[in-house]
Amino acid sequence: MKPYAKLLLLILIPMMLVMGYAMSSFELGTGDYVLQKADLSGVGQLFLGFIDSRESVFVDSIQRADSLARVKRDSLAQVEADSLARQRAIPSDAHILMIGDSMLEGLIRRMDDYTTENGYQLSGVIWYSSTTHIWAITDTLEYYLDSIQPDYVMLCLGANELFVRDLPKREQYISTIIGKLGTRPFVWIGPPNWTRDTGINDLIGSMVGEDRFFDSRNLELERAEDRIHPTRWAAAQWMDSIALWMNGPKVRHPLPMHRPEKRYRGNYQLYLLKPYH
Length: 277
Fold this sequence. Notes:
277 residues; alpha/beta; Rossmann fold
C-alpha cells in the first residue's frame, strides 16, 4: 500500500469511529465516566445550508437567464418595429433629391434608371467644385429643400476636400449641413478617392453614422482622362453598389429599389450651379 493511502486510512478510520459512536444508541464508559458523544447537528445544518445555497444560486441563475431572454426578445421586437416604421416613412412615390459636386454627374444618370423603374421622382443639384464649407455657409441647400420638398436626400460631397487640414472646421460645416436637413431621411455618399485623403471620409462617417454613410474610397473604379472622375460606365457601377446598400438592412432609412432592367433618360430635373467665388 502506498504511503499516502495509509495516511488517508489513518485519518478516515478514527473519523468513522467517532461518527458511528455519535449516531449509535449505546454508550461507552466505566463507572461514573461515560464517553461523550460528538455533536453532529452542526454538520447536518452545514450540509443543508450548502444544499439551500446551491438551490438558491440555481434559481437565481434561471431567473437572470429568463430576464435576459425577455430583454433580448423585447430589443429584437423594438428593432424590427423601428425598421418597419422607417420603411413606412418613405412613400412609394417619394421625391428624391441628390445634391453634390461634379462626382454627382455620373451617379445621377444611373439613379435616373432606378427612380424611373421604381416609381420615384428625382431631382438633382450639381454645384461644381463645391465643398461642405460652401453648402454650410450659403442658403442654397435650404432653397432647394424648400422648393422641391424632397422625401429623401442623397448627398455626394467630399471629393474636393481630400487634402484639407482644417478638420475641426469641416466638422462644423458637416454639422451645419445635417442640421439644415432636419428630420428628412438622408444618406451621404463618400467621395470615390483616387488617392488617400487626410481624414474627410472618417470625419463624415463618424458624424452621420455608418447607417447613413456609403464609404466609396476603396472602390476600384475606372477613371476618365483626368484620372479623378469615374467614367460613365464606372459611375453606373458605383451607383449600383450604392443602390444595393440603400436597399439593405444596414441603412437607417432603407430605400427599396429593384435593379432597373433597361436604361431611361431625362426623367429628372437637374440644376447646374457654377463654382462659388
